[in-house]
Amino acid sequence: MGFHLRRQGKTMSRSDPRFRLERQRREVDRYLLQLLEKGDEPPSLREAMRHSVAAGGKRLRPLLVIAAAETFGYPAGKVMPVAAAIELVHTYSLIHDDLPAMDDGVLRRGRPTCHRIYGEALAILAGDALLTLAFEEIASFGLSEGQAGRALRINRELARAAGREGMVGGQVLDLQTEGRQITLPELEKIDSRKTGALLQAAVRCGAIAATAGAEALKNLSDYGTCLGLAFQITDDLLDREGEAAALGKDTGADEARGKATMPALIGAAEARRRAEGLYRRALGHLDALGRPAESLAELARQLVYRNS
Q: Among residues 143, 173, 278, 304, which one has the fewest Cβ atoms lying within 10 Å of its Cβ?
């Protein structure tokens, strides 16, 4: 008799990629919480860091790292420090995005935002600590594996995706365009940096850990580009149409702040068609790999057709 996992009223067999992803999501959670217990930081800092990391979330980015690595035969256990690093960078970005100087968020992942509980100064420092811990994890990966070259490449990928040319740069553009009419290419540039860069880095870092070749990295980069744009469109649609209780964060905030979004620019129906088209293109790039990539395909499906 095969083992089955029941989740959200549905039964999944062990062969179902959703089963594997759910198990890995739990492993990522355990790893992150254990990691946050290892340091000797001030208790208030640890509590603020843990508050944001332990809130959970989909863990999409670390799962993309693991799925990309496994596609090329590299086991999840060995790539876990890289997966954790990308989730730490993502969580730091959420803390900073929610600050009063940015989006002034009240809820994140179903909990009060970090600065609402711990104050603005400690929230900023908690985000800084998570960001620096991420690069400590990448260094640990390189040392434990004896693969300094791979760790250096992963470090560069993540730094570029998170920094001035990627997530930070995208956030600056996003702030600068509030209340302005912008073009579709301008919006895609913002979304590809603010959201897409880190998603693309996740699959590339997992593949680099597994020593994937240049052609495979190109296909995964294209997959990540489609994924990032589709993710942001879906996020914008949910901000318009979703419920705060299901999403775990405030809704309607983008419209209230006059942010440029795909639904506002081209309409909700066309935005949804665009997201589905990007999803199909992402699957095409996976097909070009010429090897099984069920987990990457399932993550793309979950991302585009999610309701939270």
A: 143
